[in-house]
């Protein structure tokens, strides 16, 4: 909770217990407290000592989305989501985009509402998500257990996969639609790799996990048109990899061909070299 010693003024009364306020610097936040909004008017000062909980976003767009969200979902769902995110942060080392609070609270609230109405969705990518994002998937399962304890609503097990994608999305700073594309690209690339080498890889191995992590960031760069992180490879090194790892380089070319046909995107030579190195690494485990 932060106020920086400044004064708070009411920007909008959400209800008797929730206010949208701004501080002296113009930073907007949502504050809650019993009776905090009762008979309040826009522009009035608010005593920070009466505030029980604060929700703040750095970005202007996120501030607006948060304000709109608290008008649409039960405050208990936002509070529960913030608690879940704190637990997630304790298990995941990567920084999480602040918008996770908004997107995950919105998803959880809607999922609870759907469950109460007898409407449930299956996640067609659940198996892939479980395999490619195991840490986030386990956190999704943990969230379901906490939601069950706190709300007495037993969400469909598939929701763990949806929650996992929200977490990965916050790690990669991308959108949910792109996350689906990334997950499907990983799945397609692995099918190419396993067909090329004519064997299934050990999904629990460290090298396989490293390869999945590489594919995650590789796909992110591809869909967000971000610069390759491998451009430091000089032409002499690239030629050495092409000649010394010809079999694996050929597999990387097949992955690039799959991406070209499925997504109409070109894979750079530097990315091909990096893929080759990872393909060689995951094949060493069977040597």
Structure summarized in a few sentences:
With 287 residues, this protein is an alpha+beta fold. The chain has helices at residues 60-70, 75-89, 100-116, 126-132, 134-151, 159-172, 176-197, 206-223, 235-244, 246-263, 269-284, and strands spanning 8-15, 18-22, 28-32, 45-46, 53-56.
Description:
It is a single chain. The chain is elongated. Mean pLDDT is 88; it is low at 1-5. It has eleven helices and five strands. It has three domains: 8-57, Transcription Regulation, Sacy, Chain A, CATH 2.30.24; 75-172, PRD domain (PTS-regulatory domain, PRD), CATH 1.10.1790; 190-284, PRD domain (PTS-regulatory domain, PRD), CATH 1.10.1790. It has a five-stranded antiparallel beta sheet, with helices on one face. The longest helix is centred in the middle third of the chain and has 22 residues, at 176-197. The protein is of the alpha+beta class and 287 residues long.
């Amino acid at each position: 909770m932060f106020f920086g010693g400044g004064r708070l003024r009411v920007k909008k009364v959400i209800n008797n217990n929730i206010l949208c306020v701004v501080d002296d610097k113009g930073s907007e936040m949502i504050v809650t407290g019993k009776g905090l909004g009762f008979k309040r008017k826009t522009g009035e000062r608010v005593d920070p000592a009466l505030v029980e909980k604060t929700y703040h976003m750095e970005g202007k767009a996120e501030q607006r989305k948060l304000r709109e969200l608290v008008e649409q979902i039960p405050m208990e769902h936002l509070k529960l989501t913030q608690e879940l995110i704190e637990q997630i942060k304790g298990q995941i080392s990567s920084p999480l985009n602040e918008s996770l609070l908004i997107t995950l609270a919105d998803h959880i609230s809607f999922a609870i509402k759907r469950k109460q109405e007898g409407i449930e969705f299956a996640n067609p990518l659940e198996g892939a998500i479980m395999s490619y994002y195991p840490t986030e998937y386990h956190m999704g399962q943990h969230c379901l257990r906490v939601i069950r304890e706190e709300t007495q609503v037993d969400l469909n097990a598939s929701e763990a996969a949806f929650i996992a994608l929200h977490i990965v999305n916050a790690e990669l700073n991308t959108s949910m639609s792109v996350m689906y594309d990334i997950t499907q690209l990983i799945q397609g690339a692995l099918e190419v790799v396993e067909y090329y080498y004519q064997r299934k890889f050990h999904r629990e191995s460290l090298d396989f996990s490293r390869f999945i992590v590489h594919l995650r960031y590789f796909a992110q760069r591809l869909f967000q048109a971000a610069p390759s992180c491998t451009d430091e490879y000089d032409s002499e090194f690239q030629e050495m990899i092409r000649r010394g790892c010809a079999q694996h380089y050929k597999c990387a070319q097949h992955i690039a061909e799959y991406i070209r046909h499925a997504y109409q995107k070109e894979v750079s030579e530097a990315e091909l070299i990096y893929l080759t190195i990872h393909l060689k690494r995951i094949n060493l485990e069977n040597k």
